[in-house]
């Protein structure tokens, strides 16, 4: 198993237990580019040099990594140097402990707040009992634990949730701060809201119902990377370069919405029955990352 990205305690009131966080994602891209000279084809190398030398365009040697430290510009051209050891010794409790400050409904974790996922495991066997009790309690209540944790040079808001009905682990999601999100009203305020015809809405619901299926991320592929591979292979083998197809022009005549919906469904639905109630229901907002086990649901209703 990989080394944990962060290890520390989860503190919930007087309850504390150790956990380890592991980065849950990794880049799978197989095509990468280097910067090269168009004239010679050689690879371009970047060097870190003193600003004074760069401005005077004098020949200079690169600055060694051990000579480089962080500096904060407190006035124009003047910096206060911050040593790595000084950052390590910052008095921030969340460097070592995720202090849970509240619990929220899973549905309140809007997708726009979610930043990055982590796998969460008990740090050791001694922590397993408390870990499992808290995890099961979160499953039964449909809640997420909200706290803060410091890593990657900042203090992050973090949400702890069960990993799902078929997993004994938990997930952690770092969340964006409110001031990191742009104001949605700036983008949505000018959207026109014409009246919705009942027949059009019914057809749209029927179309959604027919196209609904369980999400299978595994069936999606990166078509852009596939196209880049084809381009690279063609250039290496001196083959004709693949060219993008011209986009289809928009029709001059505006297709009637009702006709477009009927054609999408695949049959004349002017006399179609109303879609099942489960299709018409509006899904709850939120990231929907936890499903309560069926056996738990039975137990709850008993």
What does it look like?
It is a single chain. With 302 residues, this protein is α+β, with helices and mostly antiparallel strands. The protein has helices at 51-56, 84-88, 125-141, 185-188, 198-211, 223-236, 257-265, 277-280, 294-301; strands at residues 6-12, 15-23, 70-75, 78-82, 97-99, 102-105, 114-122, 143-151, 154-162, 170-175. Residues 268-273, 278-284 and 288-302 have low confidence and may be disordered.
Number of helices: 9
Q: How would you write the strand order of the largest sheet?
A: 5-1-2-7-10-9-8-6
Topology as a string of helices (H) and strands (E): EEHEEHEEEHEEEHHHHHH
Helix/sheet category: alpha+beta
Percentage of β-strand residues: 15-25%
The number of distinct β-strands equals 10
- CA-CA gap between termini: 40 Å
Biggest sheet layout: 8 strands, mixed
Radius of gyration: 27 Å
Low-confidence stretches: 268-273, 278-284, 288-302
Helix content percent band: 25-40%
- Globally, the shape reads extended
Q: Mean pLDDT, nearest integer?
A: 84
In short:
The chain is an alpha+beta fold. The chain contains nine helices and ten strands. The protein has helices at residues 51-56, 84-88, 125-141, 185-188, 198-211, 223-236, 257-265, 277-280, 294-301; strands at residues 6-12, 15-23, 70-75, 78-82, 97-99, 102-105, 114-122, 143-151, 154-162, 170-175.
